[in-house]
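Input/output pair, single chain:
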Amino acid sequence: MIYLGGAIAIGLLSNLHCLGMCGPIALALPLNRSNFFTRTLGVLAYNSGRILTYAALGAVLGLFGEGLHFFGLQQTFSIVLGALIILFALLPGLLQKEQIVGGGIYRWTQNLKTEFGKHFRKSSYSSLFMIGLLNGLLPCGMVYIALAGALAASSWQQGALFMALFGAGTLPVMFSLPLVVSKLTSPLRARIRKFLPIIAIGMGLLLILRGSNLGIPYLSPKSQPNAQTEAPECH
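Output:
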């Protein structure tokens, strides 16, 4: 399916972003480094938690998208959402004007950091799994873009699958990085951030195409009349 393939593509394109944004967390994981096997299991536990959070968020937004689909509003919503993503990608200053939102995100991040601290003091697999769960809740532009795709899903299952595939696409960096020694410099992170608007515009165009009712299977499906409106009247 082209639409779900887009989730993997976004995940793969996110690898550079993950390297700069989530890389420090991955490098600081409290792994049992006695041998390669224990390190690998720890990284697997961390990434399993991270992808599970993505899938859960996708299921919630997919459920909302299912309601839009039932009322025949999903394709219109998909076009509007895609246009907004492109607008904010081209004019990022629009997102920075609301200090209330920024303050809420700051408080949310501080609370997450407190929870992170509790689990970073341990090296158990359960703690690594919890770090992954919490990592999936951190504010992240790439995750927001992927969640927009999940919101355009027609069911909670498809929304969960979309986000799980997105998470799978990020694995090349997020799985291998904790197993190797790496150093992330500030100039590198600045260069990586430049990719974000390009990916956001691509996702916006995909959502607009998906809602355009062009009759392209999976990518831009034809809207189906509500079954209730098709039922013959009883006399």
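The chain is about 70% helix and 0% strand. The CA atoms of residues 62 and 153 lie 5 Å apart.
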